[in-house]
Amino acid sequence: MIAKTTIGSSFLGAINYGxxxxxxxxxxxxxxxxxxxxxxxxxxxLGIALEMQQxxxxxxxxxxxxHSSLSWKPEENPxxxxxxxxxxxxxxxxxxxxxxxxxxxxxxxxxxxxxxxxYINRVPTDGSKALETSHNYARNxxxxxxxxxxxxxxxxxxxxxxxxxxxAENQKEAQKFVNLAIKGALKQKCKTPEDLEWRLKEKRIxxxxxxxxGKIKYSSYSxxxxxxxxxxxxxxxxxxxKRLEGNHDIQLHKSRQIGF
Length: 260
Hints:
Layout: E1 2-8, H1 11-19, E2 32-38, H2 45-57, E3 65-71, H3 80-94, E4 103-108, E5 115-121, H4 136-151, H5 172-187, H6 193-202, E6 205-212, E7 215-223, E8 226-229, H7 237-257
Antiparallel strand pairs: 1-3, 2-4, 3-5, 4-5, 6-7, 7-8
Helix pairs in contact: 1-2, 3-4
Protein name: Relaxase/mobilization nuclease domain-containing protein
Pfam families: Relaxase (PF03432)
Organism: Dyadobacter chenhuakuii
């Protein structure tokens, strides 16, 4: 788990981003969820922002908005309860006790890895000194390491190639179908991400591959409208890339043997 922190002055802009809306109210993120609120009555972005702004108004703090994103590794799959616990521990360890600070936490699903956005009002509800911002980078590194050890996020189960993970009941049929389709494509010796995507599309499977320098870094699929993560179909992006490169090497070796 890693954290990145920014400090700002506009609660409305910050909370709207967390809630997946632009300042004019248009949805921009889509798949997200409000996970946690402390010392805030409102549930909507505007209400949350106004409550935080009002609390900070009586302080001399010019930049009361604390925004941290917590991100897990792509292969990690924390539950919402674990994300909430991580958020609470993060705030406490940073000096923003949830009993004394206004806090809002959103989960975003716009990237391959799990991540949440934490918004803290640096001005505490008891009127004491604003949350300190010095040495944020070093504190983020230390605190994330502590939380990772405490909650066991570092102990990620090794994903055995081809092995199916537990998924929701409505994903099981899609999971098995995609798993078999990938196995079949690899047996047909496809050698590139484009080749694999083409073969899966023949099976009416929608693929989303994120490539870096031509290699698969993240993968996800959808079959009959059911989305499913790459790691949940038995093949991580790293495993897929290794198999594609292996098929390429085998084909190259055979071509050399017959003089091509």
